[in-house]
Automatic annotation (TrEMBL):
InterPro entries associated with the record: Iontro_rcpt_C, SBP_3_CS, Solute-binding_3/MltF_N
Pfam families registered for this protein in UniProt: SBP_bac_3
Protein's recorded name: Amino acid ABC transporter substrate-binding protein (PAAT family)
Organism, scientific name: Caminibacter pacificus
Family note: Belongs to the bacterial solute-binding protein 3 family.
């Protein structure tokens, strides 16, 4: 009898612990509030951006919409400056970051990441005056100016790869690459999807695109630490959309089709 009582006590304790964990889960809070709050910075084409009417659209937005739909809740997009986006999550201004965020060990100390949902690498857009450049190594010398966006993995890669060139950072991708177009810089380093789309538009015939990936960068959804229920749901969500055709549909819409460009230009 004593063993049975002890066993039942252990079971009850475990149940109580699981219930308390669920009560604290962000997923439980989302369901209670009937709202999924997503932090993102609308400036990373084609992941998240504003159309001509100021509405936020993009690959990440479609994923967030699908996520909210599967939860049975409303979606609230929370536009947030990149340099404060992790702080916004940690101070409960949103439930999750879906904003083309690269999974890094440094960021992982502050937030937890889902399994990767996209893979990108840093590439270079080079001023046409450097027509003989074949590799980033050809640009790593004094007098060369490399631009990128402040606080991104593009900046991390630039400072790691370019030891002799001058690195200049800007608050936006567009401002950084414009320096190259205006002949005030020699090259722009940033994520391949952004650079590919830029070359299909403003950069066509004006810049040289070095397509070789300089880094390996998986993108993930970021949430607060200590929330296994939410993390489990997100990883199951990813597996589902990658196998039922949803992910491919979104990918084709934003990366293989350029019809959406008319909405933002």
């Amino acid at each position: 009898m004593k063993k049975l009582i002890a066993f039942l006590f252990i079971v009850a304790s475990l149940f109580a612990a699981d219930f308390q964990l669920w009560q604290k889960s962000t997923l439980n809070s989302i369901l209670k509030n009937n709202q999924l709050r997503v932090c993102l910075e609308p400036g990373y084409v084609p992941f998240e951006m504003r159309d001509k009417h100021g509405r936020i659209i993009g690959f990440d937005v479609d994923i967030a919409k699908k996520m909210a739909k599967d939860m049975g809740v409303k979606l609230k997009l929370v536009p947030t400056a990149w340099d404060g986006i992790i702080s916004a999550l940690m101070t409960n201004k949103c439930d999750i970051i879906i904003s083309g965020m690269t999974i890094t060990q440094k960021r992982n100390l502050k937030v937890a990441f889902s399994d990767p949902y996209f893979l990108v690498g840093q590439t270079l857009l080079v001023n046409k005056k450097h027509s003989n450049v074949k590799s980033y190594k050809d640009l790593d010398k004094p007098g060369i100016v490399i631009t990128t966006k402040l606080g991104t993995t593009g900046e991390i890669a630039a400072r790691k790869l370019f030891k002799h060139a001058t690195i200049k950072t800007f608050d936006s991708e567009s401002a950084a690459v414009q320096e190259v177009l205006n002949n005030r810089a020699d090259a722009f380093i940033y994520d391949k999807p952004y650079n590919e789309l830029f070359m299909a538009g403003k950069g066509k015939g004006r810049l040289i695109f070095l397509k070789q990936d300089l880094t390996y960068e998986p993108l993930g959804f970021a949430i607060n630490h200590g929330d296994p229920d939410f993390l489990n749901w997100l990883n199951n969500f990813l597996r589902q959309i990658k196998h039922d055709g949803t992910y491919e549909k979104f990918y084709n819409k934003w990366f293989r089709n350029t019809d959406w460009l008319k909405r933002v230009q």
